[in-house]
Amino acid sequence: MDMDSPAPFNLAEWLETNRPFMKPPVTNRKLFENEDGMILQMLGGGNERVDFHDDPAEEFFYQMKGDMLLKVHADGQIKDIPIREGEVFLLPPHVPHSPQRPDPNSWGLVIEGRRLPGMVDGFEWFCFDCGHKVDRVEIQLNDIVKDLPPLFEAFYSDAERRTCKNCGSVHPGKEPPAGWASL
After folding, report:
1. Which residues belong to the annotated binding site for Fe cation?
2. pLDDT tens digit sequence for 6-51
3. What are the binding positions for Fe cation 1 in this chain (predicted)?
4. Is the N or C terminus of the chain more exposed, i.e. has fewer CB atoms within 10 Å?
5. CATH number of the domain within which 88 lies
């Protein structure tokens, strides 16, 4: 047993201390700096993402306070999976998903599986009018807080990348359509 592990700590106190750092678009903060294993993170509310994450590993969701909506892209459609306070959900790998936490007072625990060498994470955007994939970016994710904002901003700032090749609609960028995160 490796006794270099951090000591037990009070999660409510940790959340209170770290809440100011949990800002959109990602609104997360790692619980442990364990780069070789699972990613354990708290995610706060106040976000409505328009990207879909294609995670190469499973993701475990435990919604601890408030409700969230997990949008998934499956079978060519966007489907809603509400995860209510106190509920857990296990998402298989490679299911594009977009977590929605519109309530700024909500928060949950998300555990992502270990990233093995060569695994890449994908980030996709879909047309709000026809459902066609508008863009995809793949990266070897090292630090979710540092790596994602520039990736998102590159998409938001490029109208050509945001234009649907199927129907010609322009993706609105970071602003979701009205009712996008309704539970």
Report:
1. 53, 59, 97, 127, 130, 164, 167
2. 789 999 999 889 888 887 766 888 888 665 678 889 998 888 889 9
3. 53, 59, 97
4. N
5. 2.60.120.10
Q: Where would I find the beta strands (DSSP E) of 75-120? A: 77-83, 88-91, 97-101, 107-112
* Tokens standing for residue 43: 């995610």
Backbone φ and ψ of 37, nearest 5°? -125, -145
What pLDDT was estimated at residue 1?
Answer: 46
Q: Note down the domain range covering 64.
A: 11-126+136-143
The annotated binding site for substrate is made up of 59, 101, 112
Name the binding residues for O2. 49
On whether residue 17 sits in a domain, the answer given is yes
Q: How many residues does the chain have?
A: 183
What's the CA gap between 96 and 54, in Å, rounded? 4
- What is the C-alpha to C-alpha distance for residues 167 and 165, in angstroms, rounded to an integer? 6
